[in-house]
Every structure is written in structure tokens, then in C-alpha cells.
Amino acid sequence: MTVFEIREALALGGIDNAWGEARLLNDYFSGEELKRAIERRLSHEPLQYILGEWGFYREMYEVGPACLVPRSDTECLVEEAVKRLCRGARFLDLCTGSGCIAVSTLRNTQDTCAVAVDLFEETLSLAARNAARNEVFDRVTFLRADVLASPPDDACFSTPFDAIFSNPPYIRDAVVDTLSAEVRHEPRAALAGGEDGMCFYRAILEKWSRLLRPGGLMLLEIGYDQREEITALADAHGFRAEVLRDLGGNDRVAVLHRS
Fold first, then answer.
1. Is-above-0.85 flag for pTM?
2. How confident is the model at residue 33 (pLDDT cuts 50, 70, 90)?
3. Do 104 and 58 meet the contact criterion of CB atoms below 8 Å apart?
4. 16-38 b/e with 16+ CB inside 10 Å = b?
């Protein structure tokens, strides 16, 4: 198939960026593999899963059904992390997924190190491969833990962190099933944030914020409509919240400091 034929097939199948995706599929695949990749995309499987990798910030990541697709909106959080972390800082990344927040932050800061937490072994293995791919594996410890529970008794939590970062599940449970077919291919556990979308934020502030050193900060990705909720929740736990917008003008990153 030519790239023009791929574009036509994708456009007829309701793919918005048919031309751009056609060029990518044509670059990555040929022959029967190309045909199968087009079929997968027409079933609305995310392009990123089909390609098996995706660019985020200044790095390239392996991606697949074990993790949320890295999105440009999350680059806003990494940009703030890179600006705000001091040389030699130690940070905690909760709900690490592909590892994109931890890995890109490590790659773009000096002498920093991290602990990255996720609930699923398969996801942690993927994140570890991404750390190795981007040459920061020796600066990050991967740990399986449930962010909705208290931090486990582990030596890596014996020293306070300079910062805590997280892009947790924050979509209201009832909304998840109304999202696009592409998004519904992504792991529900990485999307659904409880009845009000706030359950992970509550857990982080109630159970994990004690791991933050005095004067440390938290950077939390939030939904476009969660400014008031995260501000009130932060205040209730002794934090002051500043909410930053992404490039699309939507509220995206909550910066928390102790009041």
C-alpha cells in the first residue's frame, strides 16, 4: 500500500490525523505487518501501542497496554520538575506507569535520583526498561506498592524526599466508559480515580506526604476541572496549592508546598 492509500483507509475509518498517522505507519511497517498495523488502528487501538514506542519530552519510550500512553500535557509537570529540582535532589514518583515523569526528570537534571512506585509488576518492568533505554537505570529504584495504601516498610522510604511527583488516575469512574475508543484501550486502573476522581490525591496527601522533607514540594497532574477540589484538599492537609496551566490553557499541574 502507498502512504496515500493508508491515509484514505484511516480517514474512512474515522481517524482524525489520517495523514500524519499514515506516514508513521508507513515508516514503521511494510508488507503483512503494515496491513495488520492498519487493521489494529482501524479498531481504534492507540497508535502508540501499535508502534510500540512514543516520544515524550526529550526522550523516547517503550509503550504498551501495561501503561498509559505518555501525553504532551504531562510534559508540563516534567518541565516544572526540571526547573525546580536542585542538583542532587531525591524525588518520589507515584503511579509511575511508563516511567516517563521519573526518567525524563532524571535525564534532564544533574545528580538526581528517584524512587518510582506502581502497583503492577508488568508496568514496573516496562518502566525499568525505559530507564535503561534512557540511561538512568542506575539512578532510580522501582518499587511495587499500592498508592491508595500507606507506604510500605522499605528502606528507600527511611530518608525524606525533596519532592513527590504523580500523574495518578483522576477521571471520575462514571466518565471512563464515555471516553474515546482509543482511551478505552488504555488500562482502566491508570484512568479511574474513584467516584469523584480524587481518591488518589486524598491518599497521597493523607498517607504519602509525610515522606516529604520540610520545604519540599509536590507536583501533581490534575484534570482540567479539578482546581477547586485540589486546592481545598491541599489546604485541609496543610499545603498551599498553585495551579499551572498546560499549553492548551487548561489547569494541569498543582504545585503544593506546606503552608
1. yes
2. very high
3. yes
4. eebeebbebbbeebeeeeeeebb
